[in-house]
């Protein structure tokens, strides 16, 4: 006679159901934390834009309210009178060649590190690793003296010049970019380079015509991160471009210096609406870069993570 088993009302829930509930709770908690973080990041930017559209009286009397009448001339005044437009132009004059040479030199070095074995490779890798870990504050005085020494022996002015700052930006960005691009080049198939070698291509042809185009996603990702780092750089231009403010109407300040200089002027002037307008203007390039290239950044990072 067959016996029937009766399930107890006190039976524990199935493991699959418990795991599903736990996964749902974790997902909801993650979304909540991300939403809170998004508000923390986005709200100050929106507030600076709103404050830039107010009068000084509105900023102090009711800082959380919307402007009664949008004052768009605050942005025009920040662009011209505060020279934000000149600061942004100077910054692009520095970071565009800085990013170009950073990507060119770092990709060449990274390709060698990723594809070849040679004597001293471990030593060079360690040196670049130390370069990533070395605090920039400890290098400021030696760096200043080196730039001054170059002027003494070559006659080429390096301090308070764009080309001097470009060289420093490139040197400062090389270590991280080399490590990033080395990991990316390791994900690319070796068979393509071997096939090009069989076809008679030289090492330079293989790199520039075959492997470098394949590393486009990694180059874009590294370029974006270098853009953000060099755009927000403050300590290096402050030390190396300390006398860059020339006669009236002319300046070599980059955007971080210019904004700091404008902020210090508020001790003697009451143009806080113009200051917030300047802050809003300065954030626009970085936002545009991320909005345009965010998918390429994610692709460049995930390709290395999946294949590495």
Can you give me a brief rundown of this structure?
The chain is mainly alpha-helical and 308 residues long. Helix content is 74%, strand content 0%.
Task: Explain what you see.
There is one protein chain. This protein is 74% helix and 0% strand. The protein is mainly alpha-helical. Helix 3 crosses helix 13 (272-307) and helix 7 (162-187) runs parallel beside helix 13. The termini are far apart. The model has no long low-confidence stretch (mean pLDDT 84).
What is the helix tally? Answer: 13
CATH superfamily of the largest domain: MetI-like
- The N- to C-terminal Cα distance equals 61 Å
- Overall average residue pLDDT: 84
| CATH architectural grouping of the largest domain | Orthogonal Bundle
What is the helix content?
over 70%
Task: Tell me the strand percentage band.
Answer: under 5%
Estimated structural class? mainly alpha
Could you name the CATH topology of the largest domain?
MetI-like fold
Categorize the overall geometry.
globular
Tell me the Rg in angstroms: 27 Å
What is the strand tally? 0
Low-confidence blocks of residues: none
Main beta sheet: none
The CATH class of the largest domain turns out to be Mainly Alpha
**Overall tally of domains:** 2
